[in-house]
Amino acid sequence: MIEFESWQSYSDFAVLVRKKSRYVFNREIKKFLKALIFTGKRRVINIEKDGILFRAQRGCDARPVLDENGEHIADDDWPYSEKRMLPINDKATEGRANPRGISYLYLANNRDTACAEVRPWKGSTLSLALCRIKRKLKLIDCTKVSKRIRIYFEEPAPEIRENCVWDDINNSFSRPINPNDPETEYVPTQIIAEVFRKEGYDGIAYKSSYGKGYNIVLFDINAVEIIGCWLAETNDIEFQFEHSFIGYGKNLKIEKAKLDKNVIQWNRLRAKYKPASIKILFIGESPPNPKSGKFFYEGGQLTKHTRKAFEKAFSDFNPNSTTEQFLEKFKQTACYLDDISHLPVAGLSPTERNYQLLNSLESFTKRLKRFSPKYIITFVSRIDFFVKHAIDISEIKPIEVYNLPFPSHRQQRIDKYINELSVILDSKLMPDWEKMEGTP
Q1: 35 is a domain residue
Q2: Which of 261 and 185 is assigned the larger pLDDT?
Q3: Share of the chain above pLDDT 90, in %
Q4: Higher-confidence residue: 106 or 316?
Q5: What's the number of domains the chain is made of?
Q6: pLDDT per residue over 192-206, tens digit each?
Q7: Could you tell me which residues come within 8 angstroms of residue 202 by beta carbon, excluding any fewer than 6 positions away?
Protein backbone atom coordinates (compact mmCIF):
# COMPACT_ATOMS: atom_id res chain seq x y z
CA MET A 1 0.00 0.00 0.00
CA ILE A 2 1.30 3.43 -0.97
CA GLU A 3 0.95 6.11 1.71
CA PHE A 4 2.31 9.50 2.75
CA GLU A 5 5.36 9.38 5.01
CA SER A 6 4.19 12.25 7.21
CA TRP A 7 1.15 14.33 8.06
CA GLN A 8 3.32 17.26 6.92
CA SER A 9 4.25 15.68 3.56
CA TYR A 10 2.60 18.45 1.54
CA SER A 11 4.49 21.17 3.42
CA ASP A 12 7.77 19.33 2.85
CA PHE A 13 6.93 18.90 -0.85
CA ALA A 14 6.08 22.61 -1.20
CA VAL A 15 9.42 23.69 0.25
CA LEU A 16 11.33 21.30 -2.01
CA VAL A 17 9.74 22.42 -5.29
CA ARG A 18 9.86 26.10 -4.40
CA LYS A 19 13.44 26.27 -3.20
CA LYS A 20 15.40 23.16 -4.10
CA SER A 21 14.32 21.02 -7.04
CA ARG A 22 11.60 22.48 -9.23
CA TYR A 23 12.10 20.90 -12.66
CA VAL A 24 14.09 17.76 -11.90
CA PHE A 25 12.28 15.81 -9.19
CA ASN A 26 14.37 14.14 -6.52
CA ARG A 27 13.44 10.95 -4.68
CA GLU A 28 11.38 12.69 -1.99
CA ILE A 29 9.27 14.59 -4.54
CA LYS A 30 8.66 11.47 -6.65
CA LYS A 31 7.60 9.53 -3.57
CA PHE A 32 5.13 12.26 -2.59
CA LEU A 33 3.64 12.43 -6.08
CA LYS A 34 3.30 8.65 -6.21
CA ALA A 35 1.31 8.71 -2.95
CA LEU A 36 -0.70 11.66 -4.28
CA ILE A 37 -1.78 9.75 -7.39
CA PHE A 38 -2.60 6.60 -5.40
CA THR A 39 -4.68 8.34 -2.72
CA GLY A 40 -6.28 10.61 -5.30
CA LYS A 41 -8.11 7.61 -6.74
CA ARG A 42 -10.24 7.63 -3.58
CA ARG A 43 -11.26 11.23 -4.23
CA VAL A 44 -12.65 11.01 -7.74
CA ILE A 45 -16.02 12.60 -8.53
CA ASN A 46 -17.90 12.85 -11.81
CA ILE A 47 -19.88 15.81 -13.05
CA GLU A 48 -22.43 14.84 -15.64
CA LYS A 49 -22.93 16.47 -19.00
CA ASP A 50 -25.30 19.49 -18.95
CA GLY A 51 -24.41 20.42 -15.37
CA ILE A 52 -24.27 24.14 -14.58
CA LEU A 53 -21.26 26.10 -13.29
CA PHE A 54 -20.58 29.83 -12.95
CA ARG A 55 -17.72 32.16 -13.87
CA ALA A 56 -17.33 35.82 -12.94
CA GLN A 57 -15.06 38.65 -14.01
CA ARG A 58 -14.71 42.14 -12.63
CA GLY A 59 -16.08 44.84 -14.88
CA CYS A 60 -18.42 44.98 -17.86
CA ASP A 61 -18.82 46.38 -21.34
CA ALA A 62 -20.84 49.42 -22.39
CA ARG A 63 -23.80 49.39 -24.77
CA PRO A 64 -24.86 52.57 -26.58
CA VAL A 65 -28.30 54.01 -25.87
CA LEU A 66 -29.92 55.68 -28.87
CA ASP A 67 -32.78 58.18 -28.97
CA GLU A 68 -35.78 57.97 -31.32
CA ASN A 69 -33.68 59.44 -34.12
CA GLY A 70 -30.90 56.93 -33.71
CA GLU A 71 -28.55 59.42 -32.04
CA HIS A 72 -26.15 58.19 -29.37
CA ILE A 73 -27.19 59.81 -26.09
CA ALA A 74 -25.64 57.60 -23.39
CA ASP A 75 -24.02 54.26 -22.57
CA ASP A 76 -25.48 51.45 -20.48
CA ASP A 77 -23.57 48.76 -18.62
CA TRP A 78 -23.65 45.42 -20.42
CA PRO A 79 -22.03 42.06 -19.57
CA TYR A 80 -18.82 41.02 -21.25
CA SER A 81 -19.14 38.96 -24.41
CA GLU A 82 -18.92 35.18 -24.33
CA LYS A 83 -15.43 35.39 -25.84
CA ARG A 84 -14.30 37.84 -23.17
CA MET A 85 -15.65 35.61 -20.37
CA LEU A 86 -13.36 32.73 -21.37
CA PRO A 87 -9.56 32.72 -20.98
CA ILE A 88 -7.43 33.24 -24.07
CA ASN A 89 -5.56 30.09 -24.95
CA ASP A 90 -1.75 30.40 -24.58
CA LYS A 91 -2.10 33.91 -23.05
CA ALA A 92 -2.52 32.94 -19.40
CA THR A 93 -0.73 34.62 -16.51
CA GLU A 94 0.37 32.66 -13.44
CA GLY A 95 -2.55 31.08 -11.59
CA ARG A 96 -3.14 28.84 -8.63
CA ALA A 97 -3.30 25.77 -10.91
CA ASN A 98 -1.90 26.94 -14.24
CA PRO A 99 1.60 28.15 -15.11
CA ARG A 100 2.15 31.14 -17.34
CA GLY A 101 1.18 30.44 -20.95
CA ILE A 102 -1.14 27.47 -20.21
CA SER A 103 -4.80 28.40 -19.85
CA TYR A 104 -7.12 26.64 -17.41
CA LEU A 105 -10.73 27.53 -16.68
CA TYR A 106 -11.70 28.58 -13.13
CA LEU A 107 -15.37 28.12 -12.21
CA ALA A 108 -17.64 27.87 -9.15
CA ASN A 109 -20.66 25.78 -8.24
CA ASN A 110 -22.86 28.80 -7.43
CA ARG A 111 -23.03 32.38 -8.59
CA ASP A 112 -22.18 34.11 -5.28
CA THR A 113 -19.03 32.03 -4.89
CA ALA A 114 -18.00 32.84 -8.47
CA CYS A 115 -18.47 36.56 -7.74
CA ALA A 116 -16.66 36.44 -4.40
CA GLU A 117 -13.65 34.65 -5.87
CA VAL A 118 -12.74 37.66 -8.02
CA ARG A 119 -12.65 39.76 -4.80
CA PRO A 120 -14.58 42.82 -6.00
CA TRP A 121 -14.75 46.05 -4.07
CA LYS A 122 -18.04 47.40 -2.68
CA GLY A 123 -20.21 48.89 -5.42
CA SER A 124 -18.27 47.31 -8.25
CA THR A 125 -20.02 45.73 -11.23
CA LEU A 126 -19.29 42.19 -12.33
CA SER A 127 -20.06 40.10 -15.40
CA LEU A 128 -21.35 36.65 -14.44
CA ALA A 129 -21.62 33.78 -16.92
CA LEU A 130 -23.77 30.66 -16.74
CA CYS A 131 -21.74 27.77 -18.14
CA ARG A 132 -23.10 24.43 -19.37
CA ILE A 133 -20.82 21.39 -19.15
CA LYS A 134 -20.49 19.86 -22.61
CA ARG A 135 -19.32 16.38 -21.58
CA LYS A 136 -18.97 14.19 -18.52
CA LEU A 137 -16.03 15.32 -16.37
CA LYS A 138 -13.83 13.32 -14.00
CA LEU A 139 -12.39 15.45 -11.19
CA ILE A 140 -10.17 15.12 -8.16
CA ASP A 141 -12.20 16.28 -5.16
CA CYS A 142 -10.23 18.14 -2.49
CA THR A 143 -13.31 19.52 -0.74
CA LYS A 144 -13.69 16.80 1.91
CA VAL A 145 -11.61 18.49 4.56
CA SER A 146 -11.40 18.40 8.35
CA LYS A 147 -12.16 21.55 10.34
CA ARG A 148 -9.99 20.50 13.26
CA ILE A 149 -6.68 22.16 14.07
CA ARG A 150 -4.05 19.45 13.77
CA ILE A 151 -0.76 19.28 15.64
CA TYR A 152 0.94 15.91 16.06
CA PHE A 153 4.13 15.32 18.02
CA GLU A 154 4.31 11.77 16.67
CA GLU A 155 3.28 10.52 13.25
CA PRO A 156 -0.42 9.49 13.34
CA ALA A 157 -1.95 6.51 11.56
CA PRO A 158 -1.73 6.41 7.73
CA GLU A 159 -5.39 7.38 7.28
CA ILE A 160 -4.96 10.48 9.45
CA ARG A 161 -1.75 11.39 7.62
CA GLU A 162 -3.58 11.13 4.32
CA ASN A 163 -6.41 13.39 5.49
CA CYS A 164 -3.93 15.95 6.81
CA VAL A 165 -2.07 16.07 3.49
CA TRP A 166 -5.26 16.49 1.46
CA ASP A 167 -6.46 19.20 3.86
CA ASP A 168 -3.24 21.07 3.19
CA ILE A 169 -3.64 20.61 -0.56
CA ASN A 170 -7.19 21.97 -0.46
CA ASN A 171 -6.06 24.94 1.66
CA SER A 172 -3.29 25.74 -0.82
CA PHE A 173 -5.70 25.76 -3.74
CA SER A 174 -8.28 27.74 -1.74
CA ARG A 175 -5.98 30.42 -0.38
CA PRO A 176 -6.77 33.76 -2.08
CA ILE A 177 -4.20 34.83 -4.61
CA ASN A 178 -2.23 37.89 -3.55
CA PRO A 179 -0.82 39.93 -6.45
CA ASN A 180 2.27 40.54 -4.33
CA ASP A 181 2.97 36.82 -3.94
CA PRO A 182 6.10 35.61 -5.72
CA GLU A 183 5.40 33.32 -8.68
CA THR A 184 7.10 30.49 -6.82
CA GLU A 185 4.14 30.50 -4.40
CA TYR A 186 2.04 28.73 -7.03
CA VAL A 187 4.57 26.05 -7.99
CA PRO A 188 3.32 23.25 -5.66
CA THR A 189 -0.32 23.49 -6.74
CA GLN A 190 0.70 23.92 -10.39
CA ILE A 191 2.71 20.69 -10.24
CA ILE A 192 -0.19 18.85 -8.58
CA ALA A 193 -2.58 20.08 -11.28
CA GLU A 194 -0.16 19.01 -14.02
CA VAL A 195 0.22 15.56 -12.46
CA PHE A 196 -3.53 14.97 -12.39
CA ARG A 197 -3.90 16.34 -15.90
CA LYS A 198 -1.32 13.81 -17.09
CA GLU A 199 -3.23 11.06 -15.25
CA GLY A 200 -6.29 11.78 -17.40
CA TYR A 201 -8.42 13.82 -15.02
CA ASP A 202 -10.40 16.82 -16.28
CA GLY A 203 -9.85 19.10 -13.31
CA ILE A 204 -9.76 19.66 -9.57
CA ALA A 205 -12.50 20.74 -7.14
CA TYR A 206 -11.55 22.66 -3.98
CA LYS A 207 -13.37 24.66 -1.33
CA SER A 208 -13.80 28.39 -1.60
CA SER A 209 -12.32 30.70 1.01
CA TYR A 210 -15.53 32.73 0.70
CA GLY A 211 -18.63 31.00 2.04
CA LYS A 212 -19.92 27.47 1.57
CA GLY A 213 -19.34 27.04 -2.15
CA TYR A 214 -16.54 25.33 -3.98
CA ASN A 215 -14.42 26.03 -7.03
CA ILE A 216 -13.51 23.89 -10.00
CA VAL A 217 -10.50 24.35 -12.25
CA LEU A 218 -10.81 22.60 -15.61
CA PHE A 219 -7.78 21.78 -17.73
CA ASP A 220 -9.76 22.10 -20.98
CA ILE A 221 -11.14 25.61 -21.46
CA ASN A 222 -13.53 24.28 -24.13
CA ALA A 223 -15.21 21.80 -21.77
CA VAL A 224 -18.08 24.26 -21.16
CA GLU A 225 -20.16 26.65 -23.22
CA ILE A 226 -21.58 29.95 -22.02
CA ILE A 227 -25.36 29.98 -22.37
CA GLY A 228 -26.06 33.31 -20.69
CA CYS A 229 -24.36 36.24 -18.99
CA TRP A 230 -25.67 38.99 -16.76
CA LEU A 231 -24.53 41.77 -14.41
CA ALA A 232 -24.05 41.60 -10.65
CA GLU A 233 -23.25 44.39 -8.20
CA THR A 234 -21.29 44.02 -4.97
CA ASN A 235 -23.43 45.26 -2.09
CA ASP A 236 -20.92 45.12 0.76
CA ILE A 237 -17.55 43.77 1.85
CA GLU A 238 -19.18 40.56 3.08
CA PHE A 239 -19.58 39.71 -0.60
CA GLN A 240 -23.34 39.92 -0.91
CA PHE A 241 -24.39 40.39 -4.51
CA GLU A 242 -27.42 41.77 -6.28
CA HIS A 243 -27.99 39.93 -9.55
CA SER A 244 -29.62 42.13 -12.16
CA PHE A 245 -31.87 41.28 -15.09
CA ILE A 246 -29.47 42.97 -17.49
CA GLY A 247 -27.84 40.46 -19.78
CA TYR A 248 -27.60 38.91 -23.22
CA GLY A 249 -30.81 39.16 -25.21
CA LYS A 250 -33.38 41.89 -25.43
CA ASN A 251 -34.99 43.39 -22.36
CA LEU A 252 -37.98 41.20 -21.51
CA LYS A 253 -39.86 43.69 -19.33
CA ILE A 254 -42.07 44.83 -22.21
CA GLU A 255 -43.18 41.30 -22.98
CA LYS A 256 -43.84 40.72 -19.27
CA ALA A 257 -46.08 43.78 -19.04
CA LYS A 258 -48.08 42.73 -22.10
CA LEU A 259 -48.59 39.20 -20.80
CA ASP A 260 -49.45 40.00 -17.18
CA LYS A 261 -53.16 39.22 -17.66
CA ASN A 262 -52.42 35.83 -19.19
CA VAL A 263 -49.87 34.99 -16.50
CA ILE A 264 -52.38 35.84 -13.75
CA GLN A 265 -55.00 33.60 -15.36
CA TRP A 266 -52.51 30.76 -15.88
CA ASN A 267 -51.39 30.95 -12.24
CA ARG A 268 -55.00 30.82 -11.07
CA LEU A 269 -55.47 27.63 -13.08
CA ARG A 270 -52.23 26.18 -11.70
CA ALA A 271 -53.52 26.81 -8.18
CA LYS A 272 -56.95 25.35 -8.98
CA TYR A 273 -55.53 22.06 -10.24
CA LYS A 274 -52.62 21.70 -7.84
CA PRO A 275 -52.91 18.52 -5.70
CA ALA A 276 -52.18 18.57 -1.98
CA SER A 277 -49.13 16.40 -2.58
CA ILE A 278 -47.50 15.76 -5.95
CA LYS A 279 -46.55 12.28 -7.06
CA ILE A 280 -45.72 12.94 -10.72
CA LEU A 281 -44.50 16.39 -11.73
CA PHE A 282 -44.58 17.25 -15.43
CA ILE A 283 -42.04 19.99 -16.22
CA GLY A 284 -42.29 22.15 -19.30
CA GLU A 285 -40.23 25.03 -20.58
CA SER A 286 -42.95 27.70 -20.49
CA PRO A 287 -46.60 28.25 -21.40
CA PRO A 288 -47.22 28.64 -25.14
CA ASN A 289 -47.58 32.07 -26.66
CA PRO A 290 -51.33 32.88 -26.45
CA LYS A 291 -51.31 33.66 -30.17
CA SER A 292 -50.10 30.20 -31.13
CA GLY A 293 -51.65 27.76 -28.65
CA LYS A 294 -53.52 27.09 -25.44
CA PHE A 295 -52.05 26.60 -21.98
CA PHE A 296 -52.15 23.02 -20.58
CA TYR A 297 -54.77 23.83 -17.93
CA GLU A 298 -56.91 25.50 -20.61
CA GLY A 299 -57.06 22.36 -22.76
CA GLY A 300 -54.21 22.84 -25.22
CA GLN A 301 -52.59 20.27 -27.52
CA LEU A 302 -50.38 18.95 -24.70
CA THR A 303 -53.55 18.34 -22.65
CA LYS A 304 -55.08 16.43 -25.55
CA HIS A 305 -52.10 14.08 -25.98
CA THR A 306 -51.65 13.60 -22.23
CA ARG A 307 -55.31 12.65 -21.99
CA LYS A 308 -54.84 10.03 -24.71
CA ALA A 309 -52.02 8.52 -22.65
CA PHE A 310 -54.43 8.25 -19.70
CA GLU A 311 -57.02 6.58 -21.98
CA LYS A 312 -54.43 4.04 -23.11
CA ALA A 313 -53.15 3.36 -19.58
CA PHE A 314 -56.59 2.94 -17.96
CA SER A 315 -59.18 0.88 -19.83
CA ASP A 316 -62.09 2.30 -17.81
CA PHE A 317 -61.21 5.91 -18.65
CA ASN A 318 -64.20 7.66 -20.22
CA PRO A 319 -63.10 9.20 -23.56
CA ASN A 320 -66.24 11.40 -23.60
CA SER A 321 -65.36 13.30 -20.42
CA THR A 322 -64.85 17.06 -20.61
CA THR A 323 -61.45 18.75 -20.41
CA GLU A 324 -62.28 20.05 -16.94
CA GLN A 325 -63.21 16.53 -15.77
CA PHE A 326 -59.91 15.19 -17.10
CA LEU A 327 -57.93 17.93 -15.35
CA GLU A 328 -59.72 17.11 -12.09
CA LYS A 329 -58.68 13.46 -12.46
CA PHE A 330 -55.17 14.60 -13.36
CA LYS A 331 -55.17 16.44 -10.03
CA GLN A 332 -56.75 13.58 -8.07
CA THR A 333 -54.04 11.18 -9.23
CA ALA A 334 -51.45 13.61 -7.76
CA CYS A 335 -50.20 14.76 -11.17
CA TYR A 336 -49.22 18.38 -11.75
CA LEU A 337 -47.62 20.42 -14.51
CA ASP A 338 -45.29 23.34 -13.90
CA ASP A 339 -43.01 25.32 -16.22
CA ILE A 340 -39.53 26.65 -15.52
CA SER A 341 -40.61 30.03 -16.86
CA HIS A 342 -44.15 31.27 -16.30
CA LEU A 343 -43.62 33.68 -19.20
CA PRO A 344 -43.73 32.29 -22.77
CA VAL A 345 -40.34 31.90 -24.45
CA ALA A 346 -41.63 30.84 -27.88
CA GLY A 347 -40.29 33.12 -30.59
CA LEU A 348 -37.19 34.19 -28.64
CA SER A 349 -33.70 33.57 -29.96
CA PRO A 350 -31.73 30.76 -28.24
CA THR A 351 -29.77 33.33 -26.22
CA GLU A 352 -32.91 35.21 -25.18
CA ARG A 353 -34.64 31.94 -24.34
CA ASN A 354 -31.75 30.80 -22.10
CA TYR A 355 -31.67 34.21 -20.47
CA GLN A 356 -35.39 34.05 -19.59
CA LEU A 357 -35.02 30.49 -18.25
CA LEU A 358 -32.01 31.57 -16.22
CA ASN A 359 -33.98 34.43 -14.66
CA SER A 360 -36.74 31.96 -13.77
CA LEU A 361 -34.46 29.24 -12.41
CA GLU A 362 -34.26 30.46 -8.81
CA SER A 363 -38.04 30.68 -8.30
CA PHE A 364 -38.55 27.36 -10.10
CA THR A 365 -36.00 25.69 -7.81
CA LYS A 366 -37.89 26.94 -4.74
CA ARG A 367 -41.16 25.57 -6.13
CA LEU A 368 -39.51 22.26 -6.94
CA LYS A 369 -38.30 21.94 -3.35
CA ARG A 370 -41.83 22.58 -2.07
CA PHE A 371 -43.35 20.09 -4.51
CA SER A 372 -40.81 17.34 -3.72
CA PRO A 373 -42.33 14.95 -6.30
CA LYS A 374 -41.63 11.22 -6.38
CA TYR A 375 -41.33 11.20 -10.17
CA ILE A 376 -40.47 13.88 -12.71
CA ILE A 377 -41.36 13.93 -16.41
CA THR A 378 -39.80 16.41 -18.81
CA PHE A 379 -40.63 16.64 -22.49
CA VAL A 380 -38.38 19.39 -23.86
CA SER A 381 -34.81 18.12 -24.14
CA ARG A 382 -33.22 21.59 -24.15
CA ILE A 383 -34.38 22.22 -20.56
CA ASP A 384 -32.86 19.00 -19.17
CA PHE A 385 -29.74 20.71 -17.81
CA PHE A 386 -31.88 23.43 -16.13
CA VAL A 387 -33.97 20.71 -14.49
CA LYS A 388 -30.86 18.79 -13.38
CA HIS A 389 -29.43 21.95 -11.85
CA ALA A 390 -32.69 22.72 -10.02
CA ILE A 391 -32.83 19.17 -8.64
CA ASP A 392 -29.25 19.45 -7.38
CA ILE A 393 -29.80 22.84 -5.72
CA SER A 394 -33.17 21.93 -4.21
CA GLU A 395 -31.68 18.68 -2.84
CA ILE A 396 -34.85 16.75 -3.59
CA LYS A 397 -34.45 13.06 -4.37
CA PRO A 398 -36.99 11.93 -6.98
CA ILE A 399 -37.20 8.19 -7.49
CA GLU A 400 -36.85 8.63 -11.23
CA VAL A 401 -36.69 11.34 -13.90
CA TYR A 402 -38.20 10.53 -17.30
CA ASN A 403 -37.38 12.44 -20.49
CA LEU A 404 -40.17 12.14 -23.07
CA PRO A 405 -40.33 13.65 -26.57
CA PHE A 406 -42.49 16.72 -26.86
CA PRO A 407 -45.70 15.79 -28.75
CA SER A 408 -45.23 18.23 -31.60
CA HIS A 409 -47.09 18.21 -34.94
CA ARG A 410 -45.16 15.16 -36.13
CA GLN A 411 -47.29 12.08 -35.61
CA GLN A 412 -44.28 9.92 -34.81
CA ARG A 413 -43.37 12.12 -31.83
CA ILE A 414 -46.99 12.29 -30.69
CA ASP A 415 -47.31 8.49 -30.76
CA LYS A 416 -44.01 8.07 -28.91
CA TYR A 417 -45.10 10.53 -26.20
CA ILE A 418 -48.48 8.82 -25.71
CA ASN A 419 -47.01 5.31 -25.67
CA GLU A 420 -44.15 6.07 -23.28
CA LEU A 421 -46.32 8.17 -20.95
CA SER A 422 -49.04 5.49 -20.81
CA VAL A 423 -46.46 2.93 -19.63
CA ILE A 424 -45.30 5.29 -16.86
CA LEU A 425 -48.88 6.01 -15.78
CA ASP A 426 -49.78 2.34 -15.72
CA SER A 427 -46.81 1.45 -13.50
CA LYS A 428 -46.93 4.45 -11.15
CA LEU A 429 -50.61 5.44 -10.93
CA MET A 430 -52.65 2.25 -11.27
CA PRO A 431 -53.08 1.76 -7.49
CA ASP A 432 -54.20 5.39 -7.11
CA TRP A 433 -56.55 5.07 -10.07
CA GLU A 434 -58.20 1.93 -8.70
CA LYS A 435 -58.84 3.62 -5.34
CA MET A 436 -60.72 6.51 -6.98
CA GLU A 437 -64.47 6.31 -7.00
CA GLY A 438 -65.68 6.51 -10.58
CA THR A 439 -63.64 7.58 -13.58
CA PRO A 440 -64.35 10.39 -16.00
Answers
A1: yes
A2: 185
A3: 49
A4: 106
A5: 2
A6: 999 999 999 999 999
A7: 137, 138, 139, 218, 219, 220, 223
Q: Are residues 295 and 209 in the same domain?
A: no
Alpha helices in 153-252 (DSSP H): 158-174, 187-198
Residue 68 lies in a domain: yes
b (16+ CB within 10 A) / e for 359-371: bbbeebbeebeeb
Q: The dihedral of CA 287, 293, 296, 302: what is its sign?
A: negative
pTM: 0.63
Shared-domain flag, residues 163 and 260: no
Listed as own residue / partner, the contacts of 364-372 with beta carbons closer than 8 Å and 24 or more positions apart are: 364/338, 364/340, 364/390, 365/389, 365/390, 365/393, 365/394, 366/394, 367/338, 368/281, 368/338, 368/394, 368/396, 369/394, 369/395, 369/396, 371/278, 371/281, 371/336, 371/338, 371/396, 372/278, 372/396
The residue type at 78: W
Nearest to 351 by CA among 82, 105, 138, 158: 82
pLDDT tier at 70, thresholds 50, 70, 90: confident
Q: Write out pLDDT tens, residues 230-277.
A: 888 877 655 555 555 445 533 333 334 344 678 888 989 999 999 999
Question: Structural domain of residue 166, as residue ranges?
Answer: 1-248
* 8 is a domain residue: yes
One domain, residues 322 and 219: no
pLDDT computed for residue 257 by the predictor: 36
